[in-house]
Amino acid sequence: MIGTIIVALFIIVAIAAPFLAPHDPTAVDARAILAAPSSEHWLGTDNLGRDILSRLIHGARWTLGTAFLASALIVTIGVTVGLVAGYVGGLLDDILMRVVDILLAFPSLVLALAIVGMLGPSLMNVMLGMVAVWWVDYARVIRGLTVGMREREFVTAARCAGAPAPRIIARHLLPNVVPSVIVLATLELGSLMLAISALSFLGLGAQPPTPEWGTMLNDGRAFFQRAPQLMIYPGLAITLAVIGSNLVGDGLRDVLDPRMKR
Question: Which end of the chain is more exposed for a tag (fewer CB within 10 A), N or C?
């Protein structure tokens, strides 16, 4: 419940950012550079006089939005590959699983870093790089579940009734792997947010003046001794979002996994 509340609050903030932010997150005020917290700027301003609170609020849109969109694409690709490989088997299964093995041989973040480096720095390219390497974990898990179910009685009955393979996969196998997919996706969401913020911190993600949390960390790095809050605030936002998603994942695992029930 605590994780759900944290994630829900961040989602509400991201959706209502234009109404909640007291200032334009990209507006520069040369008269208020590194200003202390005040009634006008509740969390102070950064090195360009931009309101930190407004940038944090709008940053939720960029960081969470990119993570959720990347997660949706990763789940779609991973589940599709896993279901097809597990049900069809044979040569297709061997080819798909060898591709998965090759991608798993490299650290995911390093491979994503190489892809973004070739495509060029942007938040869109970061998302594409994450999707290109992150789906393999889902594919392997779903493939294992599918192999264990394809000889079950309900699948055999559907096959004997003349149901085509796409219908069996969509109507009989997919609903049985959805709980595992939900748990894995929520647990991996925190890792995705950390990876996206890390690549932005390295200068490969969102580019200034975009108020993305990883970019805000990078912008405040040069002023850490003079104004540590420039890194503390976005760091806390990332930490809370990751903790919330991890708590939701743990809770869903306890609810959806029969082995966790007493």
Answer: C
Residue 36 lies in a domain: no
Q: How many domains does the chain have?
A: 1
Residues 202 and 215: their CA atoms lie apart, in Å, by 8
Task: Specify if 30 maps to a domain.
Answer: no
For residue 170, give both structure tokens: 């969509």
Residue 98's domain spans which residues? 2-23+41-260
Read off the pTM: 0.88
Give, as one character, the DSSP assignment of residue 7. Answer: H
Closest CA to 154 of 130, 134, 173: 173
CATH code: domain of residue 123:
1.10.3720.10
The answer to the question of residue 107 being in a domain is yes
Residue 135: name the closest of 66, 200, 204, 71 by CA. Answer: 71
Q: Is residue 19 assigned to a domain?
A: yes
- Answer for the pair 182, 205: CB distance below 8 angstroms, yes or no: no
Q: Maximum Cα–Cα distance for the chain, whole Å?
A: 76
Do residues 208 and 215 make contact, with C-beta atoms less than 8 angstroms apart?
yes
CA 178 centroid distance within chain: 18
